């Protein structure tokens, strides 16, 4: 709880006061270490809407809190808490996680998000032919597959897809499939691109995905039909011979007739549906979009229903006969609603490669990276075919220290790239031209180092990221300091806790309490009857049994030891044993059977240990801060403080 408070306190995100005029002004020093006005103003603004204590919205009061915060950080560093391995590990983990949000090209990312939404809002109907091909296939095999697909494309244009499909599909290396309708994120990105970029009625040229090479034929494009939630009753076909399934059709028609007579759909589904997965749920299926089910006919019927509760007539699919009931129509959500979800999907999807490529191109320009043709030529000359067997080594006269490329202040050498080639060679690897191999590896090597360098120096180039990391870094330190010097120490100091309790025990007490039964009802006559029965010594259970009749709750009781001021007690209650008068509280009438009165008394430590411990920790923290003020000199520049106040009060 303490940790959460500290991190939230310094990680909020509102902005109110401008600090441009205070860019280089020092507000105060802690033992000679400067604290700049711009930092104070920034943190003050971020916390202004979070704090509930009005005093913390006052600049002077907040400055005192901020000084105390900086004193604690000074002490944490003096104790070496910032050198602890656990602290460094947690901070580095957080930095790496946070950096993901800043390691992208925002322009490309936004374009991909908008593209993804448009594709989710529009569906494509297509077929494709795929010839499987290993990613490391030789150039010769790749060319053969490409040329084969070009010929198949010509055949589909001349003969039609179905004819070619029947001839070539083998389900092992060649797949010719009808895909129905699909939308964004339903296919790998390269396939999705080809389908959306191919005009209706046309066939794409061969293109490559991680599965192999494809051609795609596009039949139709339409607006997304959104999402449907339906239930169905299914009677399965008993045979592939339709002539033998007359009984199945008769049975579904009988069920449909029962529905027309007003019988409950869910009950009939549980009783008669042969889809065991949904029958127990009254036939209800999970929500689905176009292309998610294996039957396009079922989808078409489901999406054809218009109003909640509408029923389809019986219809047949390859699985049997169905009746469908519509539960919910859900159109595609607006872009503004889906944007965060789409951004997360884009960054997980293969689209993220485009984001990385754009960022790498941007970093090359930013760090003035130029092509090093001479170096790549040299590495091509020292490579040989042993690389494809995983046995290649650097030559003895290899110029290890020769400069290769410089990223900022990071100088990479021939050794760095040479060792990368040795480390990443695999066995066996299909052969390719050595110049191509070097170029591909160098681009991967350079891209990796550009990304690593940008991440390592992100605090220097991204102010928002730097602020968040600084605040998180300080928050972790402060938590460790408070945990070790205050919170845990207070928990373990049993003698100190006992003494604190004895010195402050007057603050921990029970108010006057009563052991009572409180009868309440909006009907005064009912309460009068309850009072009469209480005077006769009747129990609360007996009274409730007598007065609560015909499923009506006419009287309720609140019983037990109740502190004066308890919501169930009348404010004017006379604190004495016996049956009270009848009181009115708001719209309710009350009578109280006071069985015993307990006077105000001090609570035992065992009863208030948690409360006392919190107060003891606060007391120790106060003394700790007083000690820090004596240990470290704090000097405040009043002129700068006045300048801050004048800005805030404008």
Please explain how this structure is put together.
By secondary structure, the protein is of the alpha+beta class. Among the domains are: 122-223, Chitinase A, domain 3, CATH 3.10.50.40; 227-330, Chitinase A, domain 3 (Roll); 367-458, no CATH class; 509-602, Chitinase A, domain 3 (Roll). Helix 3 crosses helix 19.
Keywords:
650 residues; alpha+beta; Chitinase A, domain 3; five-stranded antiparallel sheet; four-stranded antiparallel sheet; flat; disordered N terminus
Secondary structure elements and pairings:
Layout: H1 2-9, E1 26-30, E2 33-36, H2 37-47, H3 59-78, H4 85-99, H5 106-120, E3 122-132, H6 139-159, H7 161-168, E4 174-182, H8 189-197, E5 207-209, E6 212-223, E7 227-236, H9 246-260, H10 265-272, H11 276-279, E8 288-289, H12 296-304, E9 315-317, E10 320-330, H13 335-348, H14 352-366, H15 373-382, E11 403-407, E12 410-413, H16 414-424, H17 434-456, H18 458-461, H19 463-492, H20 494-504, E13 509-510, E14 513-521, H21 524-535, H22 540-547, E15 556-563, E16 578-579, E17 583-585, E18 588-598, E19 601-602, H23 609-631, E20 634-636, H24 638-648
Antiparallel strand pairs: 1-2, 1-20, 3-4, 3-6, 5-6, 7-8, 7-10, 9-10, 11-12, 13-19, 14-15, 14-18, 16-18, 17-18
């Amino acid at each position: 709880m303490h940790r959460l408070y500290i991190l939230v306190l310094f990680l909020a995100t509102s902005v109110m006061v401008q600090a441009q005029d205070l860019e280089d002004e020092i507000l105060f020093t802690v033992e000679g270490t400067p604290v700049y006005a711009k930092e104070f103003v920034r943190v003050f603004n971020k916390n202004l809407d979070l704090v509930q204590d009005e005093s913390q919205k006052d600049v002077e009061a907040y400055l005192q809190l901020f000084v105390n915060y900086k004193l604690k950080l000074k002490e944490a560093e003096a104790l070496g808490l910032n050198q602890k391995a656990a602290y460094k590990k947690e901070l580095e983990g957080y930095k790496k996680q946070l950096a993901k949000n800043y390691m992208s090209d925002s322009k490309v990312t936004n374009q991909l998000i908008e593209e993804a939404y448009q594709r989710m809002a529009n569906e494509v109907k297509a077929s494709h032919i795929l010839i499987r091909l290993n990613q490391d296939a030789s150039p010769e095999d790749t060319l053969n597959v490409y040329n084969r697909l070009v010929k198949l494309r010509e055949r589909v244009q001349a003969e039609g897809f179905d004819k070619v499909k029947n001839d070539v599909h083998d389900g092992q290396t060649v797949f010719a499939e009808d895909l129905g309708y699909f939308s964004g994120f339903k296919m790998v990105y390269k396939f999705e691109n080809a389908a959306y970029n191919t005009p209706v009625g046309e066939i794409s040229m061969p293109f490559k995905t991680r599965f192999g090479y494809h051609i795609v034929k596009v039949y139709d494009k339409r607006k997304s039909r959104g999402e449907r939630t339906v239930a169905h009753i299914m009677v399965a076909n008993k045979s592939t011979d339709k002539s033998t399934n007359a009984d199945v059709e008769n049975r579904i028609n009988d069920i449909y007739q029962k529905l027309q007579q007003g019988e409950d759909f869910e009950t009939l589904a549980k009783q008669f549906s042969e889809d065991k997965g949904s029958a127990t749920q009254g036939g209800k299926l999970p929500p689905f979009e176009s292309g998610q089910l294996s039957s396009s006919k079922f989808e078409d019927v489901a999406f054809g229903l218009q109003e909640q509760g509408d029923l389809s007539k019986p219809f047949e699919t390859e699985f049997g006969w169905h009746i469908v009931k519509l539960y919910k129509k859900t159109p595609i959500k607006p872009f503004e609603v889906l944007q965060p979800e789409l951004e997360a999907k884009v960054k997980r999807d293969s689209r993220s490669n485009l984001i990385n490529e754009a960022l790498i191109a941007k970093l090359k320009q930013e760090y003035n990276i130029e092509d090093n043709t001479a170096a790549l030529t040299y590495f091509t000359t020292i490579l040989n075919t042993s690389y494809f067997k995983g046995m290649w080594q650097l030559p003895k006269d290899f110029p290890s220290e020769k400069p290769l490329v410089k990223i900022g202040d990071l100088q990479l050498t021939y050794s760095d790239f040479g060792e990368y080639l040795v480390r990443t060679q695999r066995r066996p690897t299909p052969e390719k031209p050595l110049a191509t191999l070097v170029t591909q590896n160098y681009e991967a090597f350079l891209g990796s180092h550009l990304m690593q360098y940008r991440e390592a120096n992100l605090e220097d180039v991204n102010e928002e990221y730097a602020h968040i990391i600084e605040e998180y870094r300080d928050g972790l330190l402060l938590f460790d300091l408070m945990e070790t010097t205050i919170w845990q120490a207070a928990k373990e100091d049993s003698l100190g806790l006992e003494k604190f309790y004895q010195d402050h025990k007057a603050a921990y007490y029970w108010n006057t309490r009563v052991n009572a039964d409180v009868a309440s009802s909006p009907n005064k006559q009912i309460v009068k009857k309850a009072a009469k029965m209480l005077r006769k010594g009747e129990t609360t259970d007996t009274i409730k049994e007598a007065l609560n009749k015909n499923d009506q709750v006419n009287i309720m009781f609140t019983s037990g030891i109740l502190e004066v001021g308890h919501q169930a007690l009348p404010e004017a209650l006379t604190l004495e044993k016996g049956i009270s008068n009848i009181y009115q509280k708001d719209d309710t009438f009350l009578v109280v059977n006071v069985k015993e009165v307990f006077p105000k008394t001090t609570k035992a430590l065992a009863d208030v240990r948690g409360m006392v411990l919190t107060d003891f920790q606060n007391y120790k923290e106060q003394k700790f801060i007083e000690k820090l003020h004596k240990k470290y000199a704090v000097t405040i520049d009043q002129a700068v403080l006045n300048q801050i106040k004048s800005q805030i009060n404008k």
